[in-house]
Amino acid sequence: MPIFWLVLIVLAIGAAGYVAGRRRALASAGGDSRHLHSLPSYYGSNVAIKAVVPAFLLMIVWLLVQPLYVSNTVSGMLPQSAIPDNSSRGLVMAEVRRAAEGMNNAVAQGLMSEEFAGNARADVADVTQRLKDAGQIVTSQVTQPILRAAQRYRVMNSTGGQMMTIAVLVLSVLGSLWGLRESQAEYRARNIVERSIRALLVGAASIAVLTTLGIVLSLVFNTVEFFRLYPATDFFFGLNWAPSFSGRGGSSDLGILPLLWGTFYISLVALVVAVPIGLFAAIYLSEYASPRIRSFAKPLLEVLAGIPTIVYGLFALLTVGPLLLGVFGDEGLGIMQAGTAVMTAGLVLGIMLIPFVSSLSDDIINAVPQAMRDGSYGLGATKSETIKQVVLPAALPGIVGAILLAASRAIGETMIVVLGAGAAARLSLNPFEAMTTVTAKIVSQLTGDADFASPEALVAFALGMTLFVITLGLNIFALYIVRKYREQYE
Amino acid sequence: MTDATSTPGSATPRAHKATSLLTVDERTRRRNASEGRFKTYGIVAIAIALFFLVVLVVAILRSGLPAFTATVADVEITITQEEFDAAEGELFKTKAYEQLFIGKLQRQLSENGMQVEFDAAAIERIMGKVGGDIREFYRANPAQLGEPVSFQLSASSRVDGYFKGRVTREALQDSRFLQLSDLDLVDALEEAGIIRQSFNWTFIQGADSGVDNPGGAGIGASVVGSFFMMLVVLFLSLPIGVAASIYLEEFAPQNRWTDMIEVNISNLAAVPSIVFGILGLAVFIQFMHLPQSAPLVGGLVLTLMTLPTIIISTRASLKAVPPSIRDAALGVGASKMQAVFHHVLPLAMPGILTGTIIGLAQALGETAPLLLIGMVGFVARGYPDGIVSGFVDPNSAMPAQIYTWAARADAAFYEKAWGGIIILLLFLMTMNFIAIVLRRRFERRW
């Protein structure tokens, strides 16, 4: 039974439970709701919660555990001889899964009977041919053990699905019966319902923690897997980035240093553009501008922040790149070969960061107490002297924090560098040359049909891990600085 | 002016000349000049930022608007039963139809008093394989034989480029796709009113085309993909975000776990979006085996990404509801839960919705995580069959579709990419507009 229907049925049981529980509670009080401990709807909700929540929890756990259990059992079934030398158990399991899926589809299309798909003595060539006729993707690597494993995989999955359906429905019915039994006038339904709602709220709030945990776990597991295939020292200290997708392992050079260099170079150019412009814009808006100009210029600046990065990427590739090429290219100064370069990406990235720097700095400058300005004016300082010698030093920690946050944004930005910076990994000082970044390479290594067993695909997780650690470190450091120095004036 | 009070005659080392308040001395002038300079820096900075904004908007409009027009040829021809039979009897049937078409076209041109020499190859270069289209039509509608039928044929992408200034005569000197003589024919056809620009419905309604057919590329399918994704984001991130904010703002005790949640939320808000893509790939596809390239998975990833934004804005609007509302509710006997759900939450709703819409707008423009879970443009080959298929069948999203077009070699796709950006920005502007209206109309200040 599809999960969609199962969900609907459980919800229907819950709804029926709500009505029944409400009615039963009212009946137990002789139809007068004043004799009930709680409002009638709480009795109904109590039944509905008991019917729905445990059933859904069981379903989620089951859906998470069953694939793992089935994979482990089937994978244990595969004899060592079924795994080719240049392959791994994981790759063979992927083959098994594909074959099983193919058989499922073929059965669904009516091209293969259920008995045939489960026939243990079926001939490999025959099955493969039939799968191919059904338009399923089957490689020639389907061997007898793989076919057996695929059949076993199918059987286990379908019995598992049936068992789950039964268990979930039984639990749901039991839960609603339990709730119905409780629906008596003196039962403290509101307290129970409110306690469960509170548990739901806690659960929702914990999703943030779960997300972080998910990010860390998915990065760590795959990174460890990568380092098993590729030495960590070569990854962190290698000066060459040259992945090959034909050969598996060994033949690729996966050194992160050229990518890190590209990332930092582009971010540096971006900050050189964004910080002065953003900072002066913030100073002008908060210290000089009349309310009229402020109400007009600030939203316009924020429009820059609301534009999706893909737009900036296209702007870099098709507008800024050719423009720079016209000036610095062969017809101009002759130091730029192509439109995609560090300068192109850095410039556009800088434009994107201007509103980010300016709105953060604006908040920080506004947080400097007016008394400090007044003191400075009182001593005869001009406005600019006050800003340079009083306001900015006072706001400096916050501004440094803002710049660090902007740097973390620049390092993590993807689309602008994918489109604007080029694809060649290079260690060079010329800002008019194409270079590439960590994020751009994550995209190029994971886009397309990568299998997750080759170092060329797994390296993306190691790159992601590096990126995550760097940006997280910058963020925490920036927030620490901002928080530590903000308190001085409060 | 301490100098003035010091004993006259005694030469202090830094004695100023006696000055008047009416004449500006050197030092004041310098200070005033530096004041003026500093102010100018600020104005220049804002001017530069706004200049970039203007350049960006101009670039988008100038390069994107042509995507909304297509070059089409309107040719009205009549093919009689005899001509049809004769053409069906030939060995090269489509060739025969093409000859018929050319004959009719030549007559139409000469009626307009124009004399241009052209052959079948030229027509093929300009309008593609016309003969096949005509044959298909008459085989499907034999009743139309003998009556005038108006065919709207789309011109090839190079002719389209010629009209939009992308393809010039110089660039075609030795092109085998379109020759200079063809352009003469195109000019003549335009003069006769046969080739004209019309609104490009294919671009609005169509799906992605192959790499060699920029004219047939449309953004419609990926708009649908984005729509299903936004549904997932809305129905997951709004309840979860509101529930999490209510807990943190109204119920959470001050303890380690609460602190950890708060730190996590502020950190997640700053994690690069591509890391969420990696998370989606590893957890939803690698671990849970959800279908690749599905809007459902894209929606889940974007939900996780927008949750921090929604939680932060929801908490702000919950905090803005004055405590007296809660106290009044508790005073008449409501439980804490009832006070929050019956009184605080409805009052905070406009703010929450505004924050949610802004979060959705952010999610709508996000590209990088979608590329990792396989929602690249070329999978958007058609519309989904139904609601379930809309969630689980491979599709793309607007920004990913734009990226795919931008990454293609044929420059004709760039125009589509810019056009796609106009559509994307229209959606974003609408959403932001709704958010602003909501805020203006319903937000209460206490």
TrEMBL record, chain A:
Q: Does the keyword Repeat apply?
A: no
- List, in alphabetical order, the GO biological process terms annotated in this UniProt record: phosphate ion transport
Transmembrane parts of this sequence: 51-70, 161-180, 200-220, 264-285, 305-328, 334-357, 390-411, 457-482
Q: Which residues form the ABC transmembrane type-1 domain?
A: 260-478
Source species, domain of life: Bacteria
Against CDD domains, the record matches this protein to: TM_PBP2
Record membrane topology: Multi-pass membrane protein
The question of whether Transmembrane helix is a record keyword is answered with: yes
Keyword list (alphabetical) reads:
Cell inner membrane, Cell membrane, Membrane, Phosphate transport, Transmembrane, Transmembrane helix, Transport
| Location in or out of the cell | Cell inner membrane; Cell membrane
* Gene3D superfamilies according to UniProt: MetI-like
Its family?
Belongs to the binding-protein-dependent transport system permease family. CysTW subfamily.
Q: What does this protein do?
A: Part of the binding-protein-dependent transport system for phosphate; probably responsible for the translocation of the substrate across the membrane.
**Protein name, UniProt field:** Phosphate transport system permease protein
Which source organism does the UniProt entry give? Pseudooceanicola batsensis (strain ATCC BAA-863 / DSM 15984 / KCTC 12145 / HTCC2597)
Q: What is the phylogenetic placement of the source species in the record?
A: Bacteria, Pseudomonadati, Pseudomonadota, Alphaproteobacteria, Rhodobacterales
UniProtKB/TrEMBL annotation, chain B:
**Stretches with biased composition (Polar residues):** 1-10
Q: Which UniProt keywords apply?
A: Cell membrane, Membrane, Transmembrane, Transmembrane helix, Transport
Q: Which GO terms describe its biological process?
A: phosphate ion transmembrane transport
Tell whether Transmembrane helix is among the UniProt keywords: yes
Instruction: Kindly give the membrane topology term recorded for this protein.
Output: Multi-pass membrane protein
Q: Which residues form the ABC transmembrane type-1 domain?
A: 223-435
Localization recorded for this chain is: Cell inner membrane; Cell membrane
Query: A single Gene Ontology molecular function, please?
Result: phosphate transmembrane transporter activity
Any one Gene Ontology cellular component term annotated for this protein: plasma membrane
Chief subcellular location: membrane
Q: Which InterPro entries match?
A: DUF3333, MetI-like, MetI-like_sf, Phosphate_PstA
Gene3D superfamilies per the UniProt record, alphabetical: MetI-like
Sequence intervals crossing the membrane: 40-61, 227-248, 268-290, 296-318, 339-361, 417-438
Q: What does the sequence similarity comment in the record state about its family?
A: Belongs to the binding-protein-dependent transport system permease family. CysTW subfamily.
This chain's protein is named Phosphate transport system permease protein PstA
Taxonomic lineage of the native organism: Bacteria, Pseudomonadati, Pseudomonadota, Alphaproteobacteria, Rhodobacterales
